[in-house]
Amino acid sequence: MIPLPSYSQIAELIKKGATLEAQEQIMKLREAALELQEENLSLREEIKKLREERDLANNLEFAEEVYWLLKNGERTGPYCPSCYDQHHKLTRLHNGKTRMADTKWLCLICQNTFD
User: Fold this and answer.
1) Which pTM does this prediction carry?
2) H runs (alpha helix) in the chain
3) Where are the domains of the chain?
4) 86-107 confidence digits (pLDDT tens)
5) CA 59, 62, 65: angle at the middle one, nearest 5?
């Protein structure tokens, strides 16, 4: 980042009658302020995402070889451990019990089965 002018530098330019140069310095400040606003927004979004991931991890229970989400003291799920461990995505498992298979749960995303 280039050094930014201070208020006193801009005021001095105006006193000298160098209004064009003062305007240029003000434009530098405006550009820097916009960059900082964009960076601030990006950092806020990243913090929000990290907090959501932390909260999710704190509310997951690994039992019966799958993940369960704890909400208000109740267990929901089950969720695929492969999808969560590899991609941090909660993928609900489906009933795998069919006439052809004797699998307890099936993930339709990664195709893994869990007994």
Assistant:
1) 0.59
2) 7-15, 19-58, 81-87
3) 7-53, 59-114
4) 998 899 998 877 655 667 888 8
5) 155
